[in-house]
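Question (not urgent): is this output format expected?
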Amino acid sequence: MNEFTLEIREALSRLGTATITAALARRGIRNVFMQGVAPLSSDQRRMVGIAYTMRFLPAREDKSGPTALNRGQIQVQAMEQCPPGGVLVIDSRGDARAASAGDLYIGRLKQRGCAGIVTDGGLRDSDGILKTGLPAFQQRPASPPNSLVHLPIDLNLPIACGGVAVFPGDVVVGDRDGVVVVPIELAEAVVQEGAASALYEEFADEQLAQGRALPGLFPNADDETKHAFESWKHSRAS
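Got this back:
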C-alpha cells in the first residue's frame, strides 16, 4: 500500500510543478499538468494534498432549480467530507460561466484543515477567498451562482479537471505555474528525482551567473560539467 507521509508532503512542497512534471515525463506519465487552471493569487502559498473529487453535470432545471429537493446537498457534503490535508478537485467541465464554489464554502474547507481547492471552472467572492488563506486554483473568476450552470452529481470518483484524469487518492501539487497530479505510487520516486534535479538546477544557476554558456550545461550536461557538479556537491556537504 502506498503511504503519503509527512516527509513526502513536505518534500513535494519544496518542488516546483515544472520539476515534478519533468520527473513524471521521464517515467512516461505526460498528461498530468492541468490546462487553463491558475492560482487565484500569485502570492498564495503552495498547495500539496490528496485529491478528494466532486463532479458537476450541466444544470437542468428540474434537478438543480430552486424547487429541487437535493439542491446543493452534494456540494455541502463535499465541503464537510473532504478530509483534513485533502485537496477538493472539482470537475466543472471547463465551464466558468458560473461559480464552482465561493468564499463560505472555501472558508469551511480552510476551517476543517483542508489543503486547497481546484476547479477547471470559476470561483466567486475572490476577496473573501483570499481572506481565508486557502490555496485556490481556477480557470477564471465567475460571479453567477453555480445552479445556473452546474449540477453537483457525485463525490470521490474519478473525474477530469483541466484535461487531466484525477483519481481519488492522487497527490495534487499547485504553485504559481499551475497544478500537477502525481500518482500516489510514484510520489516517493518523484521526490527523490526532483530533489536531485533541483540541486543540479541550483548548480546551473550559479554557473550561468558566472557567465557560463548553456551548451554542455543545460539541458544536457557533458562529462566535464558532471565532474564539476560532483565536486560542487562535495564542497557543499563538507
